Amino acid sequence: NIDAFVLSHSVEPITPITDEDAAKYLPPRECDYPIDPDRPITYGTMALPDTYMEFKLQFKEALDRVPEVFEEAVKEYEKISGRRYWYYDSYGIEDADALVIVLGSTYGTVKTVAKKLRAEGLKVGVMGLTMFRPLPEKELVKVLRNMKAVVVMDRAYSYGGLGGPLYTDIIGVLYRNGIRIPAKNIVYGLGGRDFRLNEAEAILKMAEKGAREGGFDTHVDWWGVRR
User: Fold this and answer.
1) Mean pLDDT, residues 9-14
2) pTM score, whole prediction
């Protein structure tokens, strides 16, 4: 939710790959279906009930194949750039009791505080998902199985529902895979409202307390709302 506003006003050093290496990974684009008067094609046609479900299933099946393609793409890009990307970035999850899951630039904020708290002895970890659709369920399960509590942060809300979109996905993953740990949703930063280090510290400590005590007082909290 206006995360790009935060990113566009942030400054940090980067090391880009060369144009030559980028060209190796991304060859010249060849359009499969160009607009060509010699080969007329219809775009955006209406689908009737006798075909609509079939091609929607094709969408679903194509997304189901993304992990296999993604992992091959990761390997190829690593060979060219020396950099490895994954379904998520993380810090401290290997031995954490409590996990905070976020999207976007908030990951850097929470990670900064997690380093401080781990130095103080709190076993907290943070995960910044880099793939949301399709949701990397198998990878999430590998991490969540080892946690005692999870806090999911959403910079959005599904009005009339049970929480933010990421939170409802995560509790679905927990339920489908028999992982019985307390989960809490933090709805924050709507409209681009700032999220600061002291707030990240409070949420990480909340997650650690939930792991230690075996639960949370509420399922969903709207964070930083003026009353």
Assistant:
1) 82
2) 0.91
